[in-house]
Each structure stands twice: as C-alpha cells, then as structure tokens.
Amino acid sequence: MPTTRFAPSPTGYLHIGGLRTALFAYLFARKQGGKIILRIEDTDQKRYVQGATENLIKTLSWFGIEFDEGPYLEGEEIKEKGENGPYFQSKRTEIYKEHAQKLLDEGHAYYCFCTPERLQEMREQQQKEKKPPMYDRKCCSLTPEEVKSRLEAGERAVIRQKIPHDKLIEFTDSIRDEMSFDPKTIDDQVLIKSEGFPTYHLANVVDDHFMGITHVIRGEEWLPSTPKHIALYQAFGWEIPQFAHIPLLLNLDKSKLSKRQGDVAAEDYINKGYLREAILNFIAFLGWNPGTEEEFFSLEQLIEKFDLKRVQKAGAIFNLEKLDWFNGHYLREKSVAELADLVFPLIDFDVKKDDPYFLKSVEVIQTRLTKLEEAPEMLRFFFTEPSYEEELLLNPKMKVTKETAKLAFQKSIETLEKISAEDFEDEENLKQPLLDLAKELELKNGQILWPLRVALTGEKYSPGTFEVLAALGKEKSVERIQSYLTNL
RNA sequence: GGUCCCAUCGUCUAGUGGUUAGGACAUCAGGUUUUCAUCCUGAAAACAGGGGUUCAAUUCCCCUUGGGACUACCA
C-alpha cells in the first residue's frame, strides 16, 4: 500500500510551506488509497517548544488533513494511534542507537572525536582554500583499540556515516526524474550526536523504513541530502522509497519563504480571517494544477484530481493577492448564517448572534469582504451612531453643497416617513420614491443619495444607500438623517 | 567557493516540433441608473540570451546568463 508521511519538527507553529507539503502528501495518499502518517521529528532538544506539537495537530486538523497513524489530540491530551509507533522521534532513541551500532559493526559508520573547535577551524581553512567544507575523515582511520580506549575514557564522540566513494549515487525523483551525485562531494554526515540523539538523517531513514513509508514527499530543500539518505538505505540493505521533492514557496524576492518577509505560520492566515477552503485551494495551486481551466477545488476535488506528475519543478512566489481573491470567492459562497457564525467571534461591540439585524448587516457587507478580519470595521456603523463630518458630506464631485444636502435631508425624511416600517425593509420599495424625489427636486441622484449614505454610515466607502436604508430600518434611518440635518 | 535544482505575461500557470502562445490573479478602460465592492465586457502584458539538431523550434541538445536550495553534533 502506498504509504507516505508528514514529518514536521515541533518548532512552534506550522509553516505554510509545511502545510503545503502536508497537503500534497495527504492528497497523494488519499488519491492512491494509501496511508499517511504523522511523525514528530523532535530530535533537537535545544529547539523544543512547549505546546508546539498540540498546535501542529490542531492546525492540521483545522484544515481537514487527517492522519491514519501518529499523534492526535483527545481533549488536551496527546495520544498516539497506529502500529508503527511511537511517532515521536524522542521516544525512539534506542532504535537509532541500535541501528547506528549496526552501521558501526559493518563499517558503514565510524566514531569521530573531533571537537567543534577543530571542525570549525577545518571548515574555515577549507573555505579559505576555496575547497568545499567537508569533514576530512581524520577519525575514520582510528584503530578499534584507540576508539575503544577513548570511549572508555569518556571522551565525547559522535557517530559519522561513511559514504562509500566508489560509486555514483542515483535515484529517480517523481518530480525531477533522474538525479545523480558524485559521492566524493558528499560529506560524512553525523548520525548520532554526542549527547546520544540522532540527527535528522539517521532518524528519518530508520523511521521511514520501519514505518513502511513507500513515498517520501518533502520540500526541495532536502534534495541535496537525499544521496546521504540513499547511502544509508544501501548500507542497511533496505528498499529505497520513492522520493518526490516539491518546489519551494518563495518570498517576493524569490528567496525561500521566510519569517522576515511576512507571515509564514499557517495560524497567521487563519487569524487574519482566511477560510480553510481558500488557503487550501490557493496553496494547492502553488506548484500544482489540474491541467484544466477550472480553478475552484474543494479538498475532496483536489484528492480526486491530484497527481504528483503535474507538480511543478520551479519554486512559486507566495503571492497574497491571489489568496485574497480565493478568499473573497469562498466568502461569497457562504450562506449569511454561516458567514455570521464566522464573523461573530471577531466582533468587539455588543451584538447578539441570532439577532436578525446582525444577520442583515452581515448580508450587506458580504460582497465587500475579502478577509474576515475586516468585518468588524465594516459592520461598525450598523451598531454605533456615525458622527457628523462636513468634509465627507459636502462632496464636490457629487455636487453636494450645504444647500442641496439640507434639501435632500428634509425632503427624503418626508418621503421615507410615508413608507411603512415593513415596506422599508425591502430596498426595492425605497428606490422609486427617492429617485422620483430627485427628479422632482431637479437634483442628480447623487445629490440625494450621497448625503443620505454619509448620514447613514458616516463612512467614505460603504454599501449602497438603499441597502443600508433597508438594513437599518425606518426608525434608525430617519433618526440618523435627522441628526445630520440638525448639524447643518 | 563546491554540489545540486530551476527558467512561458508583474504573479500563479496551460501548452505544442508547425498555435493568433491559452487561462487566472493583479493592472488599466468601459458597463451594471450615488461611493466602495460584487458582477459583466474589453485592453495591455510572456516563451532570458547564444549556439546547434531539424524543412520548421517556445518545445529536443549544449553553453552562457539569471535565480534558488544545500553546504551544522538544526530540521
């Protein structure tokens, strides 16, 4: 069965690029009828962040990315499911040590006693000589006796992989096809750190093997270390999984997407009020497309259409403009009730969730929303009285002067008063009377409608006069116009 | 510096040995009887350069250029 995995390290939040990798792996697994495993790569205790794993799980599941095996949340408690656990690398140190020993025994690895200082110096020297910085294999030639005695003396040591230099390392990447590397350019990677923890390279290969991973779908940044992993599989005599290195997400300047140049945490986008369907659709299309001109895809539809063969080779700039557009689209697809549910938690003024007036106000702003976070500001005028602003009111472009405004206010109050409160709720009943009024007064529509809109909303930009009138209702509308009139 | 990867409108991309090089976002213009937005219509906008191969290259090959990743006892 095709089995893949998402293996983040718990550094605090879910990187948006990580989310896309997870999505692609998930889509692949579901499409193939295979499995996807969540594994936590927490072998670097220096980078341990409290609550990061919980956060990772929550965020992934918010997006609807579900795992067949691995850690999950039951209430606030982290549990694990599946037969190939544990799924935290920190709980698997014995397995790694055991396998490192195997490598040692079979001559595929060696102890290294070099100090960080020596390593540093060596690299600096190599840089100076314009040589590639690589471990010089000093400790590779130590005799077993020497190793034994230094170990027994308690000297700090790491275990290094011994890359066989005699044959080319080749593999076929699902996205990039044939890849080959000259082994002499590949560094003898540290496998076990001096404190006994494995590095990514060892843990990753060992886990992928024992967890039955058939397809490794990961970011392109791993491409250069893949030959090290291949060498490890070969040293163990294990079957090599299929690799698929997906292109990077880029900053505007084409560098790897980073914190410095904007938000990189998936949570940031959730908090800004991007919808899950918009984020998913957007990131799926960064580096992949179905080959048709359709552009809106639900998670289900993505699963149906996804194919690694159609994943792009080049990196994709993470361009928010398109995300905004997707988000606007999905926002407009929501029912008013759904949208109200999403907006309600963000409201900082006094509103009742099921108040018809609130629902109405949400309906009015729906086509104007691109992100949920904008909703409270857009909604505010419905719930707080606008203040008088002469500068906004007297719009030269609309040919609104004090005189026309005064006239517009007086006469429209009269006109509106004639409409029943019930009829008032349908904007269709409002249009004709006000338009007729304009004609009667020999004013342009804008000379009536602009001042009214300003009096009603107090905003430079807002929904249309009729919409607002109907939404506010007769009483509030007339009251607001009246109050503006008294200011003139 | 070394290894590796990549290269179609500003951006995300489709595409083929012979196409008016298609779509979407963004931009601009117009329309939808007030602003903003939605919606509709239209415009502008790309095959990095140089060599080959070929009757024919955007497409295949090579080089150059440009960009990027990696180069830790991080992942």
Task: Provide the fold topology.
Elements: E1 3-6, H1 16-32, E2 35-38, H2 52-62, E3 70-74, E4 77-81, H3 93-105, E5 109-112, H4 116-128, H5 144-152, E6 158-161, E7 169-173, E8 177-181, E9 190-192, H6 200-210, E10 215-219, H7 226-236, E11 242-246, E12 249-250, H8 266-271, H9 276-284, H10 299-305, E13 316-317, H11 320-333, H12 336-343, H13 356-365, H14 375-383, H15 390-393, H16 402-417, H17 421-424, H18 428-441, H19 445-457, H20 465-472, H21 474-487
Parallel strand pairs: 1-2, 10-11, 12-13
Antiparallel strand pairs: 3-4, 5-6, 6-9, 7-8
Helix pairs in contact: 1-10, 6-7, 9-11, 12-13, 13-14, 13-20, 16-18, 16-19, 16-21, 18-19, 19-20, 20-21
The protein binds one RNA strand of 75 nucleotides through helix 4, helix 6, strand 13, helix 11 and helix 19.
Question: Would you kindly provide a written description of the structure presented here, covering whatever features stand out?
Answer:
The chain is mostly helical and 488 residues long. It has four domains: 3-89 and 249-317, 3-Layer(aba) Sandwich (Rossmann fold), CATH 3.40.50; 92-246, Rossmann fold, CATH 3.40.50; 334-383, Helicase, Ruva Protein, domain 3; 390-487, Arc Repressor Mutant, subunit A, CATH 1.10.10. It has helices at residues 16-32, 52-62, 93-105, 116-128, 144-152, 200-210, 226-236, 266-271, 276-284, 299-305, 320-333, 336-343, 356-365, 375-383, 390-393, 402-417, 421-424, 428-441, 445-457, 465-472, 474-487; strands at 3-6, 35-38, 70-74, 77-81, 109-112, 158-161, 169-173, 177-181, 190-192, 215-219, 242-246, 249-250, 316-317. It is elongated and about 105 Å long. The chain binds one RNA strand of 75 nucleotides through helix 4, helix 6, strand 13, helix 11 and helix 19.
